[in-house]
Design brief:
By secondary structure, the protein is mainly α. The protein contains 7 helices and no strands. It comes from Variovorax guangxiensis.
Length: 233
């Protein structure tokens, strides 16, 4: 992931912290998969596994952030090296927040199961959005490992698909509630779950933006797709 520097020790430190980010990403991916499984199967044990992993994710984020602070203080990096370390810090924070969203899904699943309303929810309609979000995060981590700006641009475009799925799902839930007020409680639960899935896609998009920041030195947040494509030329 990193380029060679005059200091082999610095290279080693950068590679080491980058590897830990990938490890954190793997843990978070596992959380998402378990959370979606818990949702579709109404499996409380899968939900428990998600919540148990949350503590490890939080601890690893703190450790990586501490390590980054130490590297910056000792090495005083400049230019791209500094951008890389800043982007790693922001990526780590976004991965921790993805874990938070997976944890929200798991907690909601447990609450639904305990309420006895599980089988009333058409959860299979969330599968497409969940698969898209999990796939987007996987692509973002792969692109981050390779600092692939072309892949990052593709991720930014793909995030629109998740947003469209979410908007369509919200419209469908509103229709359900208008036609049958008895579905309001279940529909609100689904809305909470759908929003958590959409936020996972947003965090994957953030990671893609950090890749462009590292390579091009351009902050493309709140920038049109046309402007981003121009910056990458």
């Amino acid at each position: 992931m990193t380029e060679k520097h005059l200091s082999s020790q610095f290279d080693s430190e950068l590679n080491g912290v980058s590897s830990r980010v990938m490890e954190l990403g793997g843990m978070v991916e596992s959380q998402i998969n378990q959370a979606v499984y818990a949702l579709l199967q109404f499996d409380p044990e899968a939900a428990n596994r998600v919540m148990e992993t949350e503590h490890r994710v939080n601890a690893m984020e703190i450790d990586i952030d501490r390590e980054l602070s130490s590297i910056i203080a000792r090495r005083q990096p400049t230019a791209r090296d500094l951008r890389l370390l800043i982007a790693i810090s922001k990526t780590t924070a976004n991965l921790e927040r993805v874990g938070d969203e997976a944890n929200k899904i798991a907690r909601m699943v447990k609450s639904i199961i305990e309420s006895g309303a599980a089988r009333q929810l058409p959860t299979t309609e969330l599968r497409i959005a969940a698969d898209l979000a999990a796939g987007l995060l996987r692509k973002a981590l792969d692109a981050f490992a390779r600092l692939d700006t072309a892949a990052a641009l593709s991720i930014l475009k793909d995030d629109d698909l998740i947003d469209k799925e979410f908007d369509g799902f919200v419209r469908k839930l509103v229709t359900y509630m208008m036609e049958d007020p008895r579905t309001i409680s279940a529909s609100l639960d689904l809305l909470f779950l759908a929003k958590a899935i959409e936020r996972i896609g947003d965090h994957a998009k953030n990671i893609a933006e950090f890749i462009i920041y590292i390579v091009k030195g351009a902050d493309v947040r709140h920038t049109s797709m046309q402007e981003i494509e121009s910056a990458l030329q």
